[in-house]
Amino acid sequence: MSSECKVVKGLSWLIMLIGLASAVMGVVMLMGARDAGVQTAAVIMIVAAVFEFVTGVTGARGANNPAHLGGFIVFAAIVALVNVAEIVLIVTGGQGTVWINAIYVAAALVAIVCASRAKRAALDR
Prior knowledge:
- By secondary structure, this protein is mainly α.
- It is 86% helix and 0% strand.
- Helix 3 packs antiparallel against helix 4.
- It is elongated, with a radius of gyration of 16 Å.
């Protein structure tokens, strides 16, 4: 396994764990919600967490066969774009912390670069 694939696998596990933690927090939030707005936010959080988990699984499986990393690259790009949008919303007057989303964007971009290199190297063989 190349060093790029190892980085992709490690970051994929990180994305999976974040997705799993987000799903648990979303379920806890949903169970304790009495307001419709909080329930909606909890459902959105659960849906995003499932997407993050699927992204991580796709990357971890694709790292074993780098020629199949195309789906992971697309999913990770979507995760990065969503987090950039969240940063913009927070900076323009929203609530929340920017640094968590910035770390997530950085991790997704590093994973995209490494996955692209690993896929290109696998296709060149």
